[in-house]
Amino acid sequence: MTDPSESPEQSPEQSAEQPARHEQPPEHLRAIAAAVQRTNDLLTRVLAEVATTPSTHAIFVDAGYVYAAAGRLVAGTEDRRSFDLDAEGLIEAFIDRARTIFPDSRLLRVYWYDGARRRIHTTEQQRIAELPDVKVRLGNLNANNQQKGVDSLIRTDLESLARHRAISDAALIGGDEDLVSAVEAAQGYGARVHLWGIEAAGGRNQAEPLLWEVDSQRTFDLDFCKPYVTRRTTHEAYADGAFAGRPAPGRDDVRFVGAQVAAQWLASRGRDNVAELLPGHPILPGAVDQELLVEAEALLGLSLRGHADLRRALRDGFWDHLHTQF
């Protein structure tokens, strides 16, 4: 008889198969483990890509604020006609400063916001627009030469870039309280907004609510701004009728400059736009006449203020060229 206390002998093959059967996990557990592994692999790739992707910053410049603040600080006036601003040099300085503040970030571009009559680029704005990595955005100018629509342009760009994760940091150069909403919108999408300003001779030139809202603040002093602002001595008063010790230009010289400005406007603004002036001959709209004067003075390097005869010659040259083209 067989002793019931004795277990039947198992072959070595049977002994090996038995535990193997118990160690094999069920099918659904194997599927879960595989899904977890795929997820881990995906996260590893995503994290590796994020680690190697640099952050991005952009610089948003309210040109009206820069002209007014830098002009006041360096030249003692906010009147653009009284000083020259080296916009290209100043933009490069802003870019260089951003490189030191955001060392691990790349520049998307510089946005330069300014005003212009009927949003048509002036010669200066055209030169700025041709700079690499610079985008000129134009609001309008009213009859008092005040910018209109610039703040809304800044908000649109700042919010859009932040929403699409195109930037992680924004350097905002401005001072208007209306920019608070732009800052809030960008921050709502995770971007950090850094307010840059220009030193004010006395008090502040940036709204306090704007200062409270941003993530950081930085101010550029006189030494930073001075190389980029040059006062135009030719716009001082000429009580004796002289041109700061230089001989007055002749009528033919000024007439030629008037034709030059007309040719530049035709090239930059288009024939249809300039042709709108023809029905008003020989009178130019006040804003257009002022713009003609400013650009002619820049070409001459002399002021024509207080010289009615030369200003008439300037208009004559302007009309002469238009009449040869239409």
UniProtKB/TrEMBL annotation:
Residues 1-18 have a biased composition (Low complexity). Residues 1-25 are annotated as: Disordered. Residues 58-199 form the NYN domain. GO terms for molecular function: RNA nuclease activity. It holds the Pfam family NYN. This is NYN domain-containing protein.
